[in-house]
Amino acid sequence: AAKDGGRGRFHFYSNDLHSAAEERSQLERDLREAISEGQLELHYQPVVQTATERIAGFEALLRWKHPQHGYISPAKFIPIAEDTGLIQAIGEWAIRTACHDLASWPKSIRCAVNVSPLQFSNEQLPTIITSALAQAGVAPTRLELEITESVFLNDDEGTDAMFAALSGIGVRLALDDFGTGYSSLGYLKTAPFNKIKIDQSFVRGATVPGSRNGAIIASITSLAQELGMDTTAEGVETLDELDLVRMHGCSHIQGYIYEKPLNKAEATKRLETGLTAIARGPKSARAPR
Ligand code: C2E
Ligand code: MG
Ligand code: MG
Ligand code: MG
């Protein structure tokens, strides 16, 4: 019986492997058509200025509305896009769409777009950005590019040249998921970042007694301040986390405590109505969420 059970499990296991590979190559085929079929969307998560509790801008987050499977997470399809090279076309679509949507919002509102390391090493990137901004009639300072530490893995002249070109255009640069990569401080010296985004893994659990995360958040924030950079705390979900990142001086806050990523119509509406007042004021005066 043990043998049968073992064989049975093995059988299932190999079936799962087979279907995982199948599923992936099917998704790969489907992804090729996602842009032309209009299945990609950008959703916009508010980024809140700590001092005023007003929306400073949005982070654009890709969503794929698959005709059979519904919404597919970028965590699942961005790696496929990167492996197949489709990331170049998808990334360009995201930049153009974000610029188009920015044009409909007040000039004080910024929008951040995530840029894959593979886009960052594409010499065409500055041209694509310049053209997207010009076509939409949007000022470069309203567009922020989010880049992860992994762009520094190929530490070559291309990286420096790309930073110089992007700075020349006048777009803002944010260092995304800070603290999760190899986090050398060396590149903060030279790379022209305007903002450091503190990864949500530091925010999560930071309020647990004895956690070292609070000390890490405080150090990143004061380092950023010394260097003249903003900081966004990512993934703030609870009032305790909100109090903590405020106390440690993060200039901006992003997370479900304020808002999840919204579709464009909802994001536009939120600019008109403002955030719900729930997080405002001292802790004791807040209504429960
Ligand atoms: P990211 O750039 O670090 O984006 C933040 C992620 O955290 C988003 O997940 C967002 O929905 C999620 N998030 C925000 N607030 C909270 C919170 O309070 N709690 C929790 N648990 N999560 C929160 P999402 O939208 O699933 O995106 C995942 C990743 O996919 C992004 O991480 C980014 O690396 C990548 N991605 C998304 N859009 C694009 C894109 O247009 N281009 C590229 N290259 N990558 C993208
Ligand atoms: Mg990001
Ligand atoms: Mg991030
Ligand atoms: Mg991330």
From TrEMBL:
Organism taxonomic ancestry: Bacteria, Pseudomonadati, Pseudomonadota, Alphaproteobacteria, Sphingomonadales
A single GO molecular function term of this UniProt record: cyclic-di-GMP binding
Swiss-Prot/TrEMBL keywords: Membrane, Transmembrane, Transmembrane helix
Coiled coil: none
Residues represented out of the complete protein: 524 to 812 of 909
Domain (EAL) ranges: 24-275
Keyword Transmembrane helix among UniProt keywords: yes
Protein name stated in the entry: Sensory box/GGDEF family protein
